Backbone:
DNA sequence: GGTTTCATGTAACTAGTTACATGATTTA
DNA sequence: TAAATCATGTAACTAGTTACATGAAACC
């Protein structure tokens, strides 16, 4: 279904508090499933009520108390059930694609700047991923178990980001640079107006 | 922000009813932004109230009446504003990635089947896209304007689907086929139980 | 005579985001 | 002394999904 199972995967590896889970999500699983701490707390509560996880209060000195959750037997079987269950490939959403599709109705130079921005963002992420690949997985052929699974997800991230960067480059190469907002402005005069007022 | 602007792009090309927009979304923009008719009707209503579009009732015989929406001046400037405005690259979500990350806690054979299913789905979509590419855009170098923009979005779809198929192949090549559910079952005995009951 | 197409909607729900709040401790 | 880190939450909101409802016409 969503966050629940991502949390189950993370907690199966090692138990942790909501805060820790939020931090872990910055890496690894977070490439493909991110969440804010607010949502994580809410979902953890629900999972606790459903009996998938059990929270144990841990008192700390020097820092605030926390609630450490572990996966219960019911949680483990739920995770196994969900992994085996066929799921739909979720619809992908790209605002940038919508913007490109609507390029004729906006400022060309601004759109090129947007595409460049996205290209850079994705390129940066890609570099981070490649660094992780080099550092943490120098010998992929030797991997097995969770290490291998982590690596495969990372490979997915690298493929996605590479694809995105190349797509942005293709757009920039194809979209004419000069002539700003030509379409949008020239069309404004002869348009039959309706409503609005 | 989302659907609003996708609808503005679609309505800018040509006016249409909610029903028609839902059908159009099956193609083109729908590669990267899909929506159900219920949501489309709701958003159209809101856009009408905001003055971005104007609806005109059209009586038909032989089939139900419909409301045809056109983009107003305010709608056009909103679209132009949004295209120029920098936006965040939206978080991508892949249930399959979460499943792969949790492979140690589920049935290996079932997961392989899932990955294969996704691979096939994406491969099918890819074939559809390639067909469109061949049929509708035989000479990409000659394109300009909306035709070019449509083509670029299609190229994005092709890249994404190609990347996904290749990723699935990489997973299938790396994930050992035999030994079903080894991890999940062997772990079930020595686990310290908490909660649940 | 049954399904698909055209056409629009309501109601209830699930998921996710944004803003705000608190308060001690450690680091710059 | 200001900011970041640790830690948990509430409240209000936006976006999106699922289920249900209606009804005529065209297609098989």
Residues:
């Amino acid at each position: 279904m969503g966050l629940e199972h991502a949390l189950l995967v993370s907690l199966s590896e090692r138990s942790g508090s909501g805060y820790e889970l939020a931090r872990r999500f910055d890496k690894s699983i977070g490439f493909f499933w991110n969440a804010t701490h607010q949502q994580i707390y809410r979902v953890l509560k629900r999972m606790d009520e459903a009996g998938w996880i059990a929270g144990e209060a841990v008192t700390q000195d020097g820092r605030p108390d926390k609630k450490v959750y572990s996966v219960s037997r019911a949680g483990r079987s739920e995770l196994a059930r969900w992994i085996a269950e066929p799921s739909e490939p979720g619809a992908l959403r790209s605002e940038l694609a919508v913007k490109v599709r609507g390029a004729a109705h906006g400022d060309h130079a601004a759109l090129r700047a947007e595409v460049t921005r996205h290209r850079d963002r994705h390129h940066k992420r890609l570099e981070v991923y490649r660094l992780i690949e080099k550092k943490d997985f120098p010998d992929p052929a030797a991997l097995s178990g969770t290490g291998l699974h982590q690596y495969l997800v990372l490979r997915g991230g690298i493929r996605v980001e590479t694809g995105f960067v190349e797509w942005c480059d293709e757009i920039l190469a194809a979209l004419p640079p000069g002539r700003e907002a030509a379409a949008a402005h020239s069309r404004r005069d002869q348009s039959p107006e309706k409503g609005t007022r």
Notes: Residues 95-185 of chain B form one domain. The CA atoms of residues 10 and 21 of chain B lie 7 Å apart. Residues 1-3, 35-36, 38-39, 42-43, 62-64 of chain B lie near DNA strand D (CB under 10 Å from a C1'). Chain B touches chain A through 91 residues (CB under 8 Å).
